Amino acid sequence: MNKTRNFVSVSSKSGVKSKELLEKRQQFVPRGIGNNTPIFVQKAQGALLHDVDGHVFLDFAGAIGTLNVGHCPPEVVKAVQQQAEQYIHTCFHVAMYEPYVTLAEKLAQITPGNFPKKTILLNSGAEAVENAIKIARKYTGKTGIISFTRGFHGRTLLGMSLTSKVKPYKFQMGPFAPAIYKAQYPYPLNCPEGMSAKEYGLYCVRLFEDLLLTEVSAEEVAAVIMEPVQGEGGFIVPPKEFVQGIYEICKKNNILFIADEIQTGFGRTGEMFASTHFGIEPDLITMSKSIAAGLPISAVTGRAEMMDAPNPGEIGGTYGGSPLGCVAALAVLEIMERDDLVGRSTRIGKTILSFFAALQKSVPLIADVRGLGAMCAIEFIHPQTKQPAKEFVTQLTKACYESGVIILSAGIHGNVVRFLTPLVITDDQLEEGLSIIGELIEEQYANLI
């Protein structure tokens, strides 16, 4: 393996400071808080992480997709600093402030749909989902909610109820919220032999129609919530016909269509929002993650008449739409527009998909290479047994961070590697990271055969 690197700098020996902090973490932090890599960060910039022992890592995880504009963009840092000097928190429910209204106006402008919109600002993705459901129920007067297999919508009670992965998210955490139903989401490797992607998508639409006859009536369904591209589920890009088919059923039955764009939003898929790829205009859109370069803030933007359904005090929260988060988000959007990070996302995605499509020819363990924009993934399945290669991905993740690249797994079997590089990653950084990952895949595969 080529050990000469331009960006990463790691040692085979664990650092002293990291060991000390890891011992404290094990003593004072619950083990239920998962952790992908046993490192502690000292500083971060762009697509690079520096740990407390002086090691440098290429970040291909982006804090689970929260850093499309990279770590610590100077414009965001400056905006937060200036805001903190004026006021940090007044609570919008008590004393309002301009950045909240300005961000709400901006989100109305950039989200899909040429109709009047309003926005509520919150703290986290799960909180955005919860409030979107509350708004949908209030507006329609109905209670039922349909989500999809392999979907992920958070770890709160309602978020878990909507999520479709038992371990680690739901096991022994019930009972769950009532009136939640799961519909089939297309999964590329499950497409029946001889059936095209379009036909498979339409087949899943028919299954959805059956659900409305066998599980819950459309007259009882307030909303459908869908990730236009599934994140935790394995970066599943559905056929356009599937998304449009579900969308049309919603329109015909007074069912709100909620697009969960928490991971897909803000340029990740080569559009500002993934819904645009599918030609739909969601009634409500949930957003978080890359909205503010890592500061905690989230949003629900939707049709004005729907957003106005709750009465004063029925939605909101003490810290919702914090001034620091608002100014950070506004700075992020300026960066994205100025530097055309949406276009950059498309170019990054093409590079990643081309690299692994070529590698797939010599590594048949790679069963699928897929993605939309820079939201890309590779799925590993043993070619003989057809079983998910979870152990291979676990070992690969470990080998990668030991070699200076941070990656994440995904999928209900944990056999998918997903890539969420900051969109500001340079071509040289991207090439070096892919080279390291590719070498490690080849090395591990050679040990299997």
Automatic annotation (TrEMBL):
InterPro entries attached to this UniProt entry: 4NH2But_aminotransferase_bac (IPR004632), Aminotrans_3 (IPR005814), Aminotrans_3_PPA_site (IPR049704), Class-III_PLP-dep_AT (IPR050103), PyrdxlP-dep_Trfase (IPR015424), PyrdxlP-dep_Trfase_major (IPR015421), PyrdxlP-dep_Trfase_small (IPR015422)
EC number: 2.6.1.19, 2.6.1.22
Keywords, alphabetical: Aminotransferase, Pyridoxal phosphate, Transferase
Keyword Transmembrane helix recorded: no
Cofactor(s), names only, from the UniProt record: pyridoxal 5'-phosphate
A GO molecular function held by the record: 4-aminobutyrate:2-oxoglutarate transaminase activity
Pathway(s) it belongs to: Amino-acid degradation; 4-aminobutanoate degradation
UniProt entry tagged with the keyword Transferase: yes
Domain of life assignment: Bacteria
Coiled coil start-end: none
Reactions catalysed according to its record: (S)-3-amino-2-methylpropanoate + 2-oxoglutarate = 2-methyl-3-oxopropanoate + L-glutamate; 4-aminobutanoate + 2-oxoglutarate = succinate semialdehyde + L-glutamate
CDD domains in the record: OAT_like
Family matches, as NCBIfam families: GABAtrnsam
Protein name: (S)-3-amino-2-methylpropionate transaminase
